[in-house]
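Design a sequence for this backbone.
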């Protein structure tokens, strides 16, 4: 007998959309394992995944009436989880950028245009990081965004130091390639945009000490 979880059927979803509270509760409950699976495959850490799954289920509960097709629940939930995980990465990258730019001797009030450009760059880097495979994304965020020591990252993920460094190297290279591809597509040059290399690879000189 197949005990695998299934998505709620369309009749149940329709009843929930029509305001039946019992059906709505059942839809949320039956969607939960799938939503958590999405989150754990997309987010950087188990805690981020739990937070994203919880947020997605809250949106499902509150806004199921906005779902246009009852058969599109899975794709809708996937997009919500993906966007929430991307938002988490964007927040982390933005915080990292803010910390790195708080030198009192060089801190200058940014213009409105600079703030817009900075926001676009953060979003671009976050999208590149979010597109990484989960194992690479975890290492990159823990090491380069959260700034954790290399050995702590390796221990947390159950890796040897060498395996952690190898995974980090592949993640950094993938982010650089992604940013370079968008640079080419938009006519930008990586050399003229110091922030991309700095955000995706801020610890190159430290790696031999991890």
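Sequence:
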């Amino acid at each position: 007998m197949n005990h695998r979880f299934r998505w709620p059927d369309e009749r149940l979803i329709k009843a929930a959309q029509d305001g039946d509270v019992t059906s709505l509760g059942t839809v949320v409950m039956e969607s939960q394992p799938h939503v958590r699976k999405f989150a754990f495959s997309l987010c950087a850490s188990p805690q981020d995944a739990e937070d994203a799954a919880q947020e997605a289920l809250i949106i499902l509960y509150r806004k199921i009436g906005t779902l246009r097709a009852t058969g599109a629940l899975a794709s809708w939930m996937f997009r919500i989880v993906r966007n929430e995980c991307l938002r988490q990465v964007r927040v982390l990258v933005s915080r990292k950028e803010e910390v790195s730019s708080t030198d009192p001797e060089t801190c200058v009030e940014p213009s409105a245009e600079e703030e817009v450009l900075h926001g676009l760059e953060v979003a671009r880097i976050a999208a590149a990081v979010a597109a990484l495979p989960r194992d690479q994304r975890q290492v990159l965020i823990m090491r380069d965004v959260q700034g954790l020591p290399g050995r702590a990252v390796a221990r947390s993920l159950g890796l040897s130091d060498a395996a952690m460094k190898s995974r980090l190297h592949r993640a950094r290279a993938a982010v650089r390639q992604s940013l370079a591809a968008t640079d080419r597509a938009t006519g930008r040059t990586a050399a003229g945009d110091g922030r991309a290399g700095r955000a995706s690879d801020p610890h190159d000189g430290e790696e031999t000490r991890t």
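Residues 189-210 have pLDDT under 50 and may be disordered.
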